Amino acid sequence: MPPDIPTDSGFRASDLLSLPSSERRVLQWLMRQGAGSLREVADHFQLMDEDAESILLALEKQGYIFAAAGNGPKSYRPRFGSSRPAGAPSIDIWSKLTG
Amino acid sequence: MGKIVSIHSFRGGTGKSNVTANLAALLARQGKRVGIVDTDIQSPGIHVLFNLSPERFRYALNDYLWGKCRIEDAAYDVSGVLQGQCPRGSCLYLIPGSMRTGEITRILRDGYDVGLLNSGFQELMERLDLTHLLIDTHPGVNEETLLSIAISDVLLLILRPDQQDYQGTAITVELARQLEVENLFMLINKAINPQDFAALKQRVESTYHVPVLGVMPLSGDVAILGSGGIFSLVNPEHPITAVLEFAAQQIDAA
């Protein structure tokens, strides 16, 4: 089972379509691999370390990946959002109605 | 690592599940280790082709998505349909969608953890040592479809020679290109005029710039079988079977 992560964050598959191609490719690769380190990302995409790092940081900042804690190098994992029922009102709307 | 193959159509009724079941069976008969996931959670049905009745499956994909079981617990060995016509080591598994009304509506109402669906695909391939995982998708464009396309090595689009299918397929092709799917193919089903098949294939290929693996006719023989089995196994000498065999070979070679 994946680590317990907040369900109101993360990306939806449709978010992939609005990412710059460099970020999208890395995120798609992490989806397929499950996880990857900075070194693995740099090697796979033949990037300089600083370029790979800046892509990972951008994805992390958007909440689309997270760095899993461990003894070795940081391992980045995709942070998926929950599928949301179509047309479901947000919690915020309900609280406004009942409040 | 095995291949993930998504089979999709923009509209319903194209024969997508039928094609998926046939390709899976033909790949297994060639000695491959094949799994099928019915991600058409809103309207599951591929289990019928494998004669797997809902009473016989304790767990479905829905149960895995709600944390009630491991993904492999919802995988059923359906290699019985091959009737022994498969090399040693091959296998054929199906992960069905739930046929319980309450469970289908629960998915619509509550949603689910998409990350679990993605990790389920990867775990399934690893734990069952699959060479091919075929994803039978829900028609149209939704989050599950986009997820499947995004992680696929191969995307096969099924369409009919129909103006609505043509327009819808253009959308899916555009999405697949944006997501840079490595191997994109099409298969035309329910075509009417056999004299026109070669020209139809050429027209579709030149319009979408996507290889068409074959053209299958609207067939009374398929209708007579009525999802009561895997067409290519029941009719090994049929021209439709030849098209499906070619498609399976191309997908395997991709």
Describe the structure.
The complex is a heterodimer of chains A (99) and B (254). Chain A has 99 residues and is mainly alpha-helical. Chain A has a single domain (13-98), classed as Orthogonal Bundle (Arc Repressor Mutant, subunit A). Chain A has helices at residues 21-33, 38-45, 49-61, 91-98; strands at 36-37, 65-68, 75-78. Chain A starts with 20 loop residues before the first helix and ends with a helix. In chain B, strands 3-4-2-5-1-6-7-8 form an eight-stranded mixed beta sheet, sandwiched between helices. In chain B, helix 6 (163-178) links the parallel strand 6 and strand 7. The chains are: A mainly alpha (99), B alpha/beta (254). Chain A binds chain B through residues 1-2, 5, 7, 10, 12-14, 16-17, 21, 24-25, 28, 31-32, 34, 78-86, 88, and chain B through 4, 67, 108-116, 118-119, 122, 143-147, 150-151, 175, 178-180.
Question: What is the secondary structure topology, with strand pairs?
Answer:
The complex is a heterodimer of chains A (99) and B (254).
Chain A: H1 21-33, E1 36-37, H2 38-45, H3 49-61, E2 65-68, E3 75-78, H4 91-98
Antiparallel strand pairs in A: 1-3, 2-3
Chain B: E1 3-8, H1 16-29, E2 33-38, H2 61-65, E3 76-77, E4 91-95, H3 101-110, H4 114-127, E5 132-136, H5 143-151, E6 154-159, H6 163-178, E7 183-191, H7 197-208, E8 212-217, H8 220-225, H9 231-234, H10 239-253
Helix pairs in contact in B: 1-10
